[in-house]
User: Fold these one by one.
Assistant:
Number 1:
Amino acid sequence: MPTNLPIAENIAHIQQLISAAAASASRDPAEVHLIAVSKTKPLSAVTAAVAAGQHSFGENYAQELADKATGLAADWHFIGPLQSNKTKLVANAASWVHTIDRPKIAERLNAQRDPKLPTLQCCIQVNISEDPNKSGLTPAAVAELADAFNAWPNLQLRGLMCIPSAEDHDAFARMQQLFNHLKQQGFCLDTLSMGMSNDFELAIAHGATHVRVGTAIFGARETNPQPIGKS
Ligand SMILES: *Cc1c(COP(=O)(O)O)cnc(C)c1O
């Protein structure tokens, strides 16, 4: 990935790869949305991406998302693990939360979301590789949580999100099956949030509608970042 190029060129390059991957899968490239993952990167990097036409940004740390959202109006997507004492930070600053994996978090977000704002767009995080070290629900537990969204008027369930284990080569295919199965059961879902810098093209081949790309746009992250905002 040409991470040494300026941000605008990186975004244009990723957009071309997204279009090509969609075309190879006989999909409309407009169905695939790029979320630029700006975690640990300064607001100036986000501003450069906005100038290049990028609208959606992903953040992993609640305080960092809240701080950046105060500095810049954009579509902020929360994609990190969310602790219940941090829900208030993202409930009104984010437009999306991709990592719902238990009712308690959704209940808090629903209670804290300003009802005058558009509904908070949500995905259920699936631990598709059933890795004990990863967050998310097992595939079998997803339908029950999806059902519970009826009780949360300030949230809208849009779909599923995953971060597969590196060695799990058919994880995206299983996500696509789970997604289709839930839709057949009557859940109204249109979002499959999967694919990162190293695997977004494969994810698109399996139906990803939102790819979350950080390194390939903004360059490598510091291994020991200064805590812009701890989560
Ligand atoms: C950091 C992160 C990304 C982006 O990863 P890159 O490999 O830098 O593209 C995507 N999704 C989640 C959930 C992340 O935490």
Note: The mean pLDDT is 94.
Number 2:
Amino acid sequence: MGVELMAVLKADAYGHGAIPLAKVAVENGASHIGVSSLEEALALREAGISAPVLILGGIYPFENFSVVLEADLIPTIASLESAQQLEKIAREKNRQVPFHLKVDTGMGRIGVSAIGAKKILEWLVGKKSVELAGIFSHLSSADSDPTMTQGQLHQFSQVCELAISMGFKKTKFHISNSAALLRYPEARLNLVRPGLALYGVMASPTPSAQELTPVLSWKTKIIFLKKVPAGTPISYGATYRASREIKIATLPVGYADGIPWSTSNKGFVLIKGRRCPIVGRVTMDHIMVDVTDLPVSIGDESVLIGRQGDAEITAQNWADWAGSISYEILCGISKRVPRVVIS
Ligand SMILES: *Cc1c(COP(=O)(O)O)cnc(C)c1O
């Protein structure tokens, strides 16, 4: 049996742009799209994306189930109460509505317990207005803790077996995020649900992840250049002072664009294929970098994420400098940074 793919495109496709990537995902065979909220799902519908969309988060208030129905979206159900509300609204509108049941096997975020899942399955028997289209759970430690992960997988498989034994046949079973997809082939079941790996990024090294190539680069240009003498302070708080005559380039990106403030005096950018250090504090709209000894001009390209010549800076590099994770760096590239899709 084939394994289907749900492309997780929440948070504007991890900062990449959900609408263009939803089209790419569907054209390349994704059977489902996963988003976090009703608003994210509606934005895809408004852009003309008609593929099945699962809203991974909870729907609240419950009246919003009407909107879910109107837009033909698939809600996640994580309590008997929400299942009953969905069934009531679907029955009133004379509809048969698919939903996915979320089981908490150790993430502790949303989801019913295994016992709660059994109660919902029993309640579902004979209900015509709602259809169990999927059962899923989320792994907390697929990249770090095999014992924890095996425990979650085991619990989840018991719920799946119960559903099958009760006659729920057309159901998708899914628990694999990116880390599990690359490490636990046995956990693919009949649908996988990666986010980060779709974008060519892995949070931690895995053998198969070496083949992944990040799809996003982030580039800017030098907008100002100057030579400054020894002792010159740079940026707010004068936390950096030139120790000799240096050449400084100003780049028009700052923390309002997604450069973490915590990378002040720590981060690097690429210019002319070389890593140039950020000097002084990251400001809202600009950073200053040391380009001493490089033959640079105004307008020269600077790569913040991606390759230039043989050099590369990754989202993970920024995460390391900022004490963060690659997910947060990618999601943090703000709206005012134009996305350009190159296919
Ligand atoms: C974000 C998310 C995913 C994707 O996780 P990755 O680590 O990016 O692969 C899958 N399922 C759920 C429920 C999520 O919230």
Note: Residues 8, 10, 56, 138, 177-178, 193-197 surround pyridoxal-5'-phosphate (CB under 6 Å).
